[in-house]
Write a structure and sequence with these properties.
Oligomer: heterotrimer
Chains: A mainly alpha (292), B alpha/beta (561), C alpha/beta (398)
Distance between the termini of chain B: 80 Å
Number of strands of chain B: 12
Largest sheet of chain C: 7 strands, mixed
Shape of chain C: elongated
Strand content of chain B: 5-15%
Order of helices and strands of chain C: HEHEHEHEEHEHEHEHEHEHHHEEEEE
Number of helices of chain B: 22
Distance between the termini of chain C: 92 Å
Number of helices of chain C: 12
Chain lengths: 292, 561, 398
Amino acid sequence: MSQQLANGLFSGAIYALFAIGFTLVFGILRHLNLAHASIFTAGAYLGIDLVARFGVPIWTAFPLVALAGVALGVVLERVAFRPLAGRADEHFAGLISSVAFGGMLVAALQARYGTQQHSFPVDAFPNRIYDIAGISISLAQVITLTVALSAMAALAWLVAASQAGRAMRAVAENPNAARILGVHVERVTASTYALSSALGATAGVLMVLNVGQAHLSMGLSIELTGFAVIILGGMGSLAGAMLAGVMLGLAESLTVHYIGSSYKDVAAFVLLFAVLLLRPQGLFGTIRVREA
Amino acid sequence: MAGYESLITTIALVGILAYSFHVVLMAGQLSLGQAGFASLGAYLSTLAVLDTPLFGTVSPVWVGIPVGMLVGASAALLLGLPVLRLRGVFLAIATIAFAEVVRILMLNAEWTNGAQGLRLDKWVTPGLAWAMLVALVYVFWRLGPSRAGRAFAAVREDEVAAGALGVDVVRTRMASFIASGAIAGLYGVLYAYFVRRIGPSDFGFTMMLDGLVTAVLGGFLLYFGPLLGSGFVVLVPEAQRAAGLEAGWIHPLLTGALLLAVILFLPGGLSSLLTRLPRPRRRAPIPVTLPVTATGHGLPARGSQLLAVDGLGKEYGGVHAARDVHLELHAGEILGIIGPNGSGKTTLVNMLSGLVSPTSGRGWVLGEKLGGSGGMHRFAAAGVSRTFQHAKLFDRLSVLQNALVGTHVVSEPTFLRRLLWLPSARHDERRALATAAAQLERVGLAHRQDLSASQLSYGDRRRLEIARALAARPTLLILDEPAAGMNPVEAAGLADLVRELANEGVTIMLIEHNVPIVLDVCTRVLVLNFGEVIAGGEPASVAADPRVVEAYLGTAGTGDA
Amino acid sequence: MRKWGKRIPTLCVTTVAAVSVLAAGCVRIEPGDSVTSRPGLNGTGSGPGCGIQDPVPVGAVLSLTEGAAFAGQYQREGLELGFKELNAREGVRYSLIMEDDKTDLGEGIAAFEKLIHREDASIIIGPTLSDLAFSTFEDAQDARTPVLGISTTADGIPEIGDYVFRNSLPEEYALAESIPAAREALGLETVAVLHDSEDEFTSSAYATMIEVLSDEGLRVVADENFETSDTEFRSQLTKIADGDPDALVLSALPNATIPLVRQARELGIDAPIVGGNAFNSPVMIANLDSAAEGLIVGGAWSSALDSEGNAEFIDAYIDAYGRAPDQFAAQAYTAAKMIDAAVRADCDGNREAIKNNLAQLDGLETVLGTVSLDEAGEVDQQPVVQIVEDGEFTLLEG
C-alpha cells in the first residue's frame, strides 16, 4: 500500500511538471498548446542522445535538454502562434497550428532516431535501489523527484518574485493594458513558451529515467493525462497543476490497487468530468470565464 | 475502377468522418468526441445487422446505418446535455475525455470481445460509401443558404450577437452536436463494415486528429470542404508513394507542414481557394418589392405600454452595476439614456434585452419576463432588436449575410423545404433577401453587400449593425452608442434615421455619449450615475438638472454638458 | 413558371445522380471469379531444375513505420535476404514488391488491393499484425490470391480460407511449451499474469495463457493488465509483488518489455519471467543487461537452434545489416524458402499453383527447423523454449 503511494507520487511528479508547462501557456496566453507533448518527446530523445552518444553525465544533460526546450519553445511560438496574433480565430487556429507543429517535430524525431524505442545506456548512472521502510525506491526515481521539485520551485519563484514573472502576470491579466504599461508583450509571450517548453522537455527526460524507455508516441498518452491535470488543477493555476498532477498519479495507483488495472485511465477521466461539470474553475483554481 | 476500390471507398469514408467535424466547426463548437460516437454507433449497429443480404440482394448494412446514426445522435444528446455548457478548449477536452472513456469501456466489455474486436462481413461497397457522402454533400449544400445554416454561421461568429437576433444559441449548438453524433455514427458503421472488423483502438485519439485535420484542411466555411479535404488527405500519400518518397517520417512531416501552411495563410481551408476563382455572377439583382420601411406589420398602437421594470438591479461580486431602476416605455417613444462611463447604461440595456439576468427587481419587456429561463433569443422573438457598444458583426460573413441573419425572427425555417426543392422555400428566401437588402439600402451599404464584414470601415460597421437589427423588423430597437466614432455628418445622418424610424412606429432606446444628439432626437431622457437613475424627463428639463451637470463634470458648476 | 423551368435541368441532374448512387449502394460485392494464369510464369522442369521465364511477382505488406515497425524492419531485411539468395540460384527469379502499411488498417487494405489487382502478385507475404490480417486476408481470399502470414499469430487466421497460410507459430503453441517447461525446470506452483489488454495479439495470447496455466495446475495469484502505450507499470507490479508468485508470465509487445522487466526487478520481483514471441529479440537482452537474466522465452526460432542453415543465415544477416537477426527476420527469411519450394514443386509461379503446392508443403527443412503446413494452412513446427543465461539465449530443452 505504501509502495503504491510512492509509485503514485513519482509518476504524479512527472505529470505535474508536464502539466505546469501546459498550464503556464494557457494561464498567461490563453493558448492550448498541443505541441507540448511533442516537445516532451523531443526532450526524452535528446536526453538519451546526449548521454548515449556524447557521453554527457546525466546531471549535465538536464540543463542542456532544458536549453534545447527553450530553443524549441521560441521556434514554436514564432512559427505556430505569433503569425496568428490578433486574428479573430486566434485560439482555434493556434490549436491547429500547434497540432501541425507537434506532428512535424515528431516526424523529425522519427527521421533522426527511427521508430524503435530508445533507452539510456545501462551504465549511464548507477541504478541503486533503496529500501526505505519497506518501500523500494530507485536512484532514478530520487533524481526524478528532485529535479521535478526544483524545477517547480524555480518556476514558482520566477513567476512570483522576478521582474519577468511580474511582466508575465501583467500580460495574463490584460495584454493590452500590459502593453500600455510598457511591457514588451511579444518578448513575454516568447519567454513563456520558452519556459513552458523547457519544463516539458525536462519532464520528457525524467519520464525516461523513471520508466526506462522513450518511444515516439509517449507524448500522446501523457497529453491526455495532462488535460486531466490542468482541468483538475484549474486552467492556468500553477499550484493547482502541481497538486492535481500528484493527485492523479496517486489516483491511478490506487485505482489499480483497489479497482483493477483495466480502469486505470478511467479514474483520470471520471475525475475530469466531475470537475468540469461541478467545478469548472478546477479544484484549486479561481473563477474565470470559461472562454478560450 | 478495379484495383482502386479501397482507395475510392477510403476517400468517401474520410470525407464522411470530416463532415462530423465540419458540422460542429461550422457552428463554432470545438467538439472532439466523434470517436466515441462512431465507436458506439459501430458496436451497437452490429447487433442489428444480419449476416445475409436483405431480400436476397440488398446490403444488410442499410439496417445498420440508421441504427448507427441514431445511436450516435442519442449519445451526442446525452453527452451534450451536461457538457454543452462548456466552451472552447473546455468543451474540446471534455469531449476528448468522453471518447477515451468510451474506448476504455468498449475495451473492457465482454460482448465487444475486448481488444480482439468483432469480425464482420464486408458490406460496404464504393457505391454505398459514395452514396452516403453525396447525400451529405447535398444536405450541407442545401443547409448553407438556409435559415438554419445562417444560424449555425451566426453562432460560430458571435454567440451573443446571434442570440440578440433571435437565434436560439443553445438549440443551435445542440443541433450541431447531435448532427455530428449522427454523422460520426454513420462513419463508424460504414468503416466497420468496410474493414470487416471493429476494435476499440480504431476509434481513438488518432482518428479524432485525422478527422479534425481533414475538416480544417478542407475548410469548414464552405459545404464541400470535407470532400476536398478528404481527397487531399487520402491522395497525398499515394502521390508520395508514386514519387518514391517511402521513408516513414515524410508523410507526417508533409501533413504537418501542409496543415500549418493552410492555417497560417489560408484560414478558410483549401475550399476557400475555389471561391477566389473568378466566376460569372449568376445572381440577378434582388428585386426590392417590399417597402423600405422597417416594419409594416403588427406594431403595437402608439402609446401602449411596451416595457415595465421595477426595482431592477444587477450586482457583480458586491459591485452594483445598476440599482433600483424603475422604468416604463410606451410605443412611439424615443428614450435617450445618458450617463458617464461606468454609470450602468449598458448593464441596463443588457438586462432589458435579456443578455444578463437582473439580481434584483422584476419586470417585463414586450411580454417577456426578465430573468426567466431561456436565452436572449426570446426577447428578440418578441420584437426587441439591439446593437452593441462595440459592434458585434459576423466577421467572416458577407455584409448581406450579416443582414440576412437579422431576418431570423421574421422568417420561416427553410432548410427542410430546401432539401426537397419546394418553391415556397425559395419564395421565403427571396423575401428574407429582399428585407435584408432593403435595410442595407437604407443605411447606404447596398453597394458593399458582397464584402466580408471584417473589411468594413468603423462607421460602416456601425451602420451594418443597425441595418442588421432593422432586418428583424423590431418593435423596440435598442441602440448602444451608435454614434461613437462617427463624424458630425454621419452622426446627423444617424439622427435623421432615428427620427424616420420613430415616424414609422418603431420605439427606440438610444444610449449615447453624444449628449447634443440625445437632447435633439429623444422624446424623453434618462440619466444614470453609479448605476442609479438620477434624473429623467423631457430633454430640456434634464439638461438643466444640476445633478446631471454635476455627474458629468464631477463638481457642481456652470457650462454645457 | 419561367424561372422554375430554368431549374428543372439542375433538379433532374441532382435526382438522377442521387438515384444512381443509391442504386450503386444496393449492389453487393461479388467475390472475384476470374482466375488468371500467366503463361510466362509457367515453367519447364521441376524442383532444382525448374526454369521459369518471367520473374515471379511476390508482394509483401509490412509495417515498416509507426507502431509495429520494430517487427516490420526485421521482416523486411529477412525477406530481402531470402529472395536475394533465391535469385542467385538458377531457374527461377522473384521480384519482391514491398508495401508499407504504416501499422494502419486502411493503409493495409489499400496496399493489398494494389498488390492483388494492380501488381498481380502471385502471393502476398505479411501483414505484420494480425489486426490487419483479418481484413486483408479476406480480401485476398475473395480475389483468390494466396497469402503467407509471417507474424500473424492470432487465433482463427488460417480458417479464413484455403488461400490463407502462415508460417508463424501461434503464441498458443509457444506458450503451451514454455509454461510447462518452465514449471518443470523451476518447480513453479504459483504465477502472476500481466498482459497488454489493448492489443489484439497479446490479449489473444493471454486467453490461451490462462487456459494453459489452469491445465498445468498452476495457481494465478495476480492477474493484471495495461494498455499498449503505457510505460509505467509499477502499480501493477506492486500488486503482483504482494502475491509473491514463483514466476511472472507476460504477454506484451516488445515496446513494453524493457520498462516492464526493469521496473519489476527494481521493485524486487526476482521471480523468473516467462514471456512469448515479444521477448525473442537480441535487442531486448542488450537493453536489459543483467535484468534479463533468467528470462524464459517461448518462440519459433532461436539463434541457438541447430537447424538447417541457421548459422549461415545468422552470419549472412549480420553481414548484410550489421545486426543480429531476431525471430521476425527468421520467419520472413523462411517464407521466401517456402514460396520457392511451392513454386518449384510444379515449376509454376501462378497463384493457383502456389496455393496448391503450399497446401502440400511437408517437412521442409528451414532455419526454424522442420516446417509443414496442414490442410487449413496452419504451420506445424516444434516450438523453442529458451532461457537467458549470461546474457545469451540458451535452449531450455532439446
